[in-house]
Write a structure and sequence with these properties.
Strand order of the largest sheet of chain B: 1-3-2-4
Number of helices of chain B: 7
Helix content of chain A: over 70%
Oligomer: heterodimer
Low-confidence stretches of chain A: none
Structural class of chain B: alpha+beta
Mean pLDDT of chain A: 85
Distance between the termini of chain B: 41 Å
Chain lengths: 313, 169
């Protein structure tokens, strides 16, 4: 049920943010991460049962390759988005590195013997093969590397929402190490596939909750920013609409009335606010009480978030 | 007021392109960093001006038709804004006067239109060699100064807008 809710929320975000992802390069990593996260949820059987989805791919457990490739790609773009958000450089190389990571997974995966038929226990069942172990090792190492570099990048700004990314990243790293130990025990014959054990318990306790914590951080930032930008868009729209009404009443022309509209909603609201004040001061226009309250409220918000000069006493 | 400058045939697409090119050129020449602070903007405008710039608030009802004022004397320049305005409007009035400074206009005629008390009470000493006021008229020069004010505001906003890019709408 939780996965289904998450799937629905991600689907809405993908659709909602598609226009901005097309328009603004800085918005793309988070959008790609959302799309890949959505596909990742499909790959774990949230909407379509695993055997059914895998049968569409030939019934040879290729779905399990997607279950490792999609989270790595989603994590990669998520780290890029967090870096952009925090004004940091990730220092993780170009998209070629991501391509190499995914290619390595695929190359090793196809070396695993006896891959079919579809099985939800595919991972455990195939740890007895060296290729199966290496495949799991590569997957976990990639996730751990991305999580670790994200933690290192965010450590100087550990407060607020970034604490969720750091804590989630650390848990993911620890869980990844536990999974490697678990797979190593199976490969060495010290543990039967599907038998559990301490490393397996630790992995379950740390790895996915860690990823979940990072996803919570991602969703929190997204919802917060979507809300904030939406508020500015509404302010821009309402002030601009009020401005077009009052301009007709003005006794003086405005120096800005012929300027093209700003694409940035904050700048649009700023321009409209300045021009409304100009109409009041210079154009002899009296604002209705409702518009006076709106203007004052937007100015207060703008002063709190966008005033650069030292605030006059 | 000269409405023709703002709404006549010159305010066509070509006029906007010319104005946009002028504004871009003037702001680019400042060489501001990608996310400038207020001090960085003021320091660079002052450097282009070649003299210290003093920014201060003024009170009084005589300010009804003037929302910002730039006065130059031999040793320095003064920018005044209205104490009664909202902080964000005050900031914009100052940015508009930065625009006049960067455009290097000389329009002392404006002094004749300013209320005598306004100049007298401003605390400016020495002969005024240059002046500009926001609000008295809509001319090509005012339009350009206003456009520079918005361009500088956009630069200043970039520091905050930066965080809206990664996850927002």
């Amino acid at each position: 049920m939780i996965n289904l809710i998450m799937f629905g929320a991600l689907a809405v975000l993908v659709l909602l943010r598609a226009p901005v992802a097309l328009r603004r390069p800085a918005a793309r990593p988070a959008w790609f991460a959302t799309v890949l996260g959505l596909l990742g949820l499909l790959a774990i059987g949230v909407v379509i049962p695993i055997p059914v989805a895998d049968s569409w791919l030939g019934g040879t457990n290729i779905l399990h390759l997607l279950r490792t490739a999609l989270p790595v790609a989603a994590f990669w773009f998520l780290r890029d988005a967090v870096a952009l958000q925090g004004g940091k450089k990730t220092g993780r190389g170009g998209p070629l590195v991501l391509g190499l990571m995914l290619a390595a997974q695929a190359l090793i995966f196809f070396q695993i013997p006896d891959r079919g038929p579809s099985s939800i226990f595919f991972v455990d069942e195939h740890m007895i093969y060296v290729a199966g172990f290496v495949w799991a090792l590569v997957y976990v190492s990639e996730i751990v590397w991305i999580a670790l570099t994200m933690v290192v990048m965010l450590l100087p700004m550990w407060k607020g929402i970034y604490a969720a990314f750091i804590a989630g990243g650390l848990a993911t790293v620890a869980g990844g190490v536990a999974l490697v130990a678990h797979c190593g025990l199976i490969l060495a014959g010290a543990q039967a596939p599907g038998a559990g054990g301490i490393p397996w318990t630790l992995f379950n306790f740390l790895f996915y909750p860690g990823i979940l914590l990072i996803v919570v951080g991602f969703v929190t930032i997204t919802v917060r920013d979507v809300y904030r930008v939406a508020r500015w868009r509404i302010a821009d729209y309402r002030l601009t609409r009020a401005l077009s009404t009052y301009e007709l009443q003005s006794t003086a022309p405005l120096a800005t009335s012929e300027m093209p509209r700003a694409a940035n909603p904050v700048l649009g609201a700023y321009r409209a606010a300045i021009q409304l004040r100009d109409l009041q001061s210079l154009g002899g226009v009296s604002l209705k009480p409702r518009d006076t309250r709106l203007l004052a409220s937007v100015e207060r918000r703008m002063t709190a978030s966008h005033l650069s000069m030292a605030r006059p006493q | 007021m000269e409405k023709a400058a703002a709404t006549g045939p010159d305010s066509s697409g070509h006029a906007h392109q010319d104005l946009a090119a002028t504004v871009r050129g003037v702001v680019d020449e400042l060489g501001l960093p990608p996310h400038p602070t207020w001090d960085e903007v003021q320091t660079r405008v002052s450097a282009r001006f070649g003299k210290p710039l003093h920014v201060a608030a003024l009170y009084g009802e005589e300010w009804a038709s003037v929302t910002g004022l730039f006065l130059e004397v031999e040793e320095c320049g003064y920018i005044f804004y209205r104490q009664s305005d909202s902080p964000i409007y005050q900031q914009h009035s100052i940015l508009h006067e930065f625009g006049h400074i960067l455009l290097d206009e000389d329009d002392c005629r404006i002094l004749d239109e300013l209320p005598r008390e306004l100049v007298g009470d401003s605390g400016v000493s020495g002969a005024i060699t240059r002046a500009a006021a926001r609000g008295l008229e809509v001319s090509a020069a005012e339009l350009a100064a206003e456009a520079i004010g918005y361009a500088l505001a956009e630069k200043l906003f970039a520091a905050q807008a930066f965080n809206e890019g990664a996850f927002g709408l």
